[in-house]
Amino acid sequence: MSFAGIGYDSHRLAKGRRLILGGVEIPGGELGLEGHSDADVLTHAVIDALLGAAGLGDIGEHFPDTDERYRDAESIELLEDVVGMVGAAGLRIVNVDCTVVMERPKLGPHREEIRSLLARVLGLDENLLNVKATTGEGIGFVGRGEGVAALAIASLEEVSAGEQAGNGPTKGSGRAR
Known about the structure:
Blueprint: E1 2-15, E2 20-21, E3 24-25, E4 31-33, H1 41-54, H2 59-62, H3 75-88, E5 91-101, H4 111-122, E6 129-134, H5 140-143, E7 147-158, E8 164-165, E9 168-169
Parallel strand pairs: 5-6
Antiparallel strand pairs: 1-4, 1-7, 2-3, 5-7, 8-9
Helix pairs in contact: 1-3
């Protein structure tokens, strides 16, 4: 059986913050993403897509912004934890497709580095992880350069007993609830 989940996140741009997308610091801008953690909207969207597909809630349930343990946390490390949760639920990541919506800077020069890092953390071949970028075409908070958004969809499948799911051993079969 297979399962799909959708993730979405957005954060405001602010001075004095780093711009991290998919675990990669994007240089050259004076603005970064404001948030409790490193505010990596792309990784947050992937996390929510995985948790949703696995029936394991959402990012706020597992890593609440009211918990000081996650202040300035590297979201790529949170993603590593979620990959373990997915595997423990008896599921394997099949593929992930995501889109970053941002006016500037352009994501193109960093896309392959982001793709490579996310694929490695997710335990996927790079051809099973896609990263796209678009702009807000001058419309809305993204178009006005006020923030960045990201969307992701993840597909998972059940694994048989004895198989490995993701990066960790299968602790059971069936979908977590």
